[in-house]
Specification:
Blueprint lengths: L1 E6 L2 E5 L4 E4 L7 H4 L5 E5 L19 E6 L11 E4 L4 E4 L2 E6 L7 E6 L2 E3 L1
Parallel strand pairs: 3-4, 4-5, 5-6
Antiparallel strand pairs: 1-2, 2-3, 7-8, 8-9, 9-10
Length: 118
């Protein structure tokens, strides 16, 4: 497992079988974008220091978006999953559980590749 700090609250966690990206507001490294591994991109809430419209630049690059339900996007994309607090979803072999937040939106607990990331 490799953890890469992106900017502000953004982190990227590269696991053996997939890449988890949390709250990116800056461009992602090319090696992450171009990786063949499936990528799950999480956004905890709609504030500009956690959500940037630039995430939609990657929609054709094997990304699945898991977004707080306070984020509004006009286009429809089969790779978008909206979540509110206290939900559970299975995405491939990955389990995502949401909780409330001290701000707006959600916090995520992700179980993937035998690891738990909050």
């Amino acid at each position: 497992m490799e953890v890469l700090y992106l900017h502000h609250s953004g982190f990227c966690v590269e696991l053996e079988n997939e890449i988890l990206i949390f709250d990116p507001i800056s461009d992602l490294p090319k090696n992450i974008v171009d990786s063949e591994k499936p990528k799950l991109l999480f956004v905890s809430h709609s504030h500009g220091d956690h959500y940037s419209r630039s995430i939609w630049d990657y929609k054709h690059k094997n990304f699945t978006y898991i977004l707080s339900d306070d984020i509004h996007h006009l286009g429809l994309n089969k790779n978008i999953i909206w979540m509110h607090p206290d939900q559970e979803k299975k995405i491939g072999d990955t389990f995502v559980t949401t909780f409330g937040s001290t701000d707006q939106g959600v916090s995520f607990l992700v179980e993937a590749d035998g690891k738990f990331i909050f």
